[in-house]
Amino acid sequence: MTVTSELRPDGIRVVTMNAPPVNALTVQGWFDVAAALDEASADMATKVVVLRAEGKGFNAGVDIKEMQNTTGFEALLGANRGCFAAFKAVYECSVPVVAAVNGFCVGGGVGLVGNADIVVASEDAYFGVPEVNQGALGAATHMARLVPQHMMRTLYFTARTIPAKDLVQFGSVLEVVPREDLLDAALKVAGEIAAKNTKVIRAAKEALNGIDPIDVNKSYRWEQGFTFELNLMGVSDELRDDFAGTTKAGGAQ
Predict the structure, then answer these.
(1) How would residue 74 be classed by pLDDT, with cut points 50, 70 and 90?
(2) Structural domain contains residue 107
(3) Which long-range contacts (CB under 8 A, 24 or more apart) does 244-248 make?
(4) Residue 197 domain-assigned?
(5) CATH at 40
(6) What protein family is recorded (predicted)?
(7) Residue 79, in any domain of the structure
(8) Is the peptide bond before 21 cis (omega within 30 degrees of 0)?
């Protein structure tokens, strides 16, 4: 199963992504993440969510191979809609979302984490938006919530990555811990939130979203429009074919 959700007795709901080998989610996987967060919102017994992953890394973005092995634009449209739904569900979750990031967090992973409320990371965690390498645009909206504007542009245009420890100075990552301590660190801060009055916390989440200077849903949708243009020009398909060939040969994602 790609996504599981477990509500603990203390009101902490742990949502886990597990899509071997690298947590590159299929179209259905993105919608499954959205469904898990929507379930958390609707369940008054849920006081806070911890979003985490099993395996090598937190998230490697969309499943490029699924996209390239699907005729027409069905997988492309599905991935765009699925990512939009998942990112939106994290942001609009009625309770705070704590992202526990291990290993790589790239592309769509940044979309999830950038829309989370609190981020803790393992010592080996790093973030990146390599969209330009695959002829797509997206997640700049969310990377801009993790790093300052000029750093975001540098990471975006170069497809470089940035280690989690460097994000602590910006305040976007709360703390960096050994990987074996990551879940405990996430549960610790989640436990502090769960101890508060749930009605107050839910009201606080809505209030904080209401004073955000940028509408993340509209901003991300704007980015997606350029992805569609690049696909119509044929640029994206060529780059994705090159990427899929590279990953097949070298095993990297």
Answers:
(1) confident
(2) yes
(3) 244/64, 244/65, 244/68, 247/64, 247/65
(4) no
(5) 3.90.226.10
(6) Belongs to the enoyl-CoA hydratase/isomerase family.
(7) yes
(8) yes
Residue 234 confidence (pLDDT) = 81
Domain count for the chain: 1
Put simply, whether the predicted model's pTM sits higher than 0.70 gets the answer: yes
d(CA 29, CA 35): 10
pLDDT in tens, 99-142: 999 999 999 999 999 999 999 999 999 999 998 988 888 999 99
Which pLDDT band, with edges at 50, 70 and 90, does 71 fall under? Answer: confident
What span, in angstroms and rounded, lies between the C-alpha atoms of 87 and 30? 9
Structural domain includes residue 117: yes
In sequence order, the 6+-apart residues with CB closer than 8 A to the CB of 138 are 83, 107, 108, 111, 129, 131, 220, 223, 224, 227
In this predicted model, what pLDDT tens digit does every residue of 210-236 receive, in sequence order?
999 999 999 999 999 998 888 888 887
Q: Which amino acid, one-letter code, is at 213?
A: P
Range of the domain at 144: 3-179+213-250
Residues forming a β-bridge with 5: 15
